[in-house]
Structure prediction request, 328 residues.
Amino acid sequence: MLRSTLLGSLLLGLSFLASAQAHEPAGDPSVVLKTPGLVAFWTFDEEPGQLRESIAPEGDYPLKEVNGPIARADQGPYSGHSIDFNGKQYLQLDYDKTGKLNISGPDAQVSMFAVVRIIDLRQSRTIAGMWSEGKGRDDDSGTRQYAMLMNMPTYGGPNQLVPHISAEGGVTRRADGSAFPWCADYAATKRMVPEEEWCTLAFTYDGKYITAYINGTYEKRELDAKKDRRDDRYFTQEGPDGKDRGMNPYYHGRGIFKYDPEKHAKSKPDGGSDFTVGARYAVGSFLREATKGKFGGLAVFDRALTDEEILKLHKSANIDALNAADKK
Prediction:
């Protein structure tokens, strides 16, 4: 009887230990917290039904669940947990509560960093941002600002990381004012975004160039106008010194859209864009391209980080440990 009780206690203890180890953070959140320019940093430690709050000192920026409680996974880089999106839900912070996340203006800079495990890039297109596209093709009512997006093949970004910056909020316009049917301003990586494995995704915008990073690495990508579907003069002749805009980095150089209620009340009646995670408003819906997968960390900065800083953030996530745990 005593032996049976001791054995039961031992097994219970081992089970508890294994559970605790499964919830231990794989990475080091202090690296993110110490990076200058940090506005918000979510580690997704909260249980379903709770607001997801930033742990950065600037403010908590509580993200509310849309379409019911969102599952929490017992694995993650910074809190030991992650939020588990199913493609039918997302997180949202109303425009009037975005505070310092509302990065905008002619001289604005922004960087984003995320630790994610993405499923199905055919649907999963959005990491996060302030990015409302309006109702579809040729619709200029959008209030786009900045966003980390994936798999946008229209202008040469199939299955790749494609961070966007918009100066107009609506569709992109050439130097003469003529309009594209969509927003066309985004960088595109050489590599495809990894599926069904942990990775880090990041981008920077320094007021001129958008640069995209996968797993802490930036790879230069030259423009191939025909292959990349960017043979319009906007891409080939309206870059620096009348040259092309490139692909990664991509030359934008026109600032980030700033919503003005007096100026835009009629042209953009829905108001400024909310900050959303896992989905964006596109073609009249949030859920058409909502993301499936786990998010273990998300950070926003109000400056362009350096290559070295992006690499440090990547290393802080320790994705090798996360992926090794997946294989057990």
